Structure formats: structure tokens, C-alpha cells
Amino acid sequence: MKAKIVNYRGSYKKQNTKQMIVQVDGIKDKASAIGLKGKKVVWTTPAGNKIIGIIAQPHGNKGAVRVHFKEKGLPGQALGTEAIVE
Predict the structure, then answer these.
(1) Would you call 52 helix, strand, or coil by DSSP?
(2) Is the CATH number of domain 2-85 3.30.70.260?
């Protein structure tokens, strides 16, 4: 499935670069997003490297999910780009 990287997870004063908010195509509510928990998300850099994360839990009521990236966080260039949910 395709997904769009929406934003970093953060608060008023802090931004967590290892956690991203992702909107998956075709997922419109929280109940559907719960079923994606544990799946992999792969984002490919412009250089061809792959950064892999795991869906942790839903974010909000509109079907967005929170993704944890293990080794390093995503760069700012990833915002608004597509990723693949496996």
C-alpha cells in the first residue's frame, strides 16, 4: 500500500525525528488503522537507500498512524513524500 508522510511527531517544544505521522491510502478511520499495527513502512531516499520503520499505533481518529524508525530518523526531505507499507 502507498502512504504519505505527513509530519514528525512532536509537541510544542520538542520534535521527535525517529517518529513520524503517516497517512495510509484507503484508511479513513481509527478502527482500520489499528489493523495496520506491526507492519513495515519503507521510505526510499533520493540516493536509493531504504529506511525502515514499524507502525506503532493509530494517531487521531482519521486513520493516520505513528511510525517508529529504529536506526535513525527521517530527514526533513521526507515530509510530503510517498512511502510503501508492506
Answers:
(1) strand
(2) no
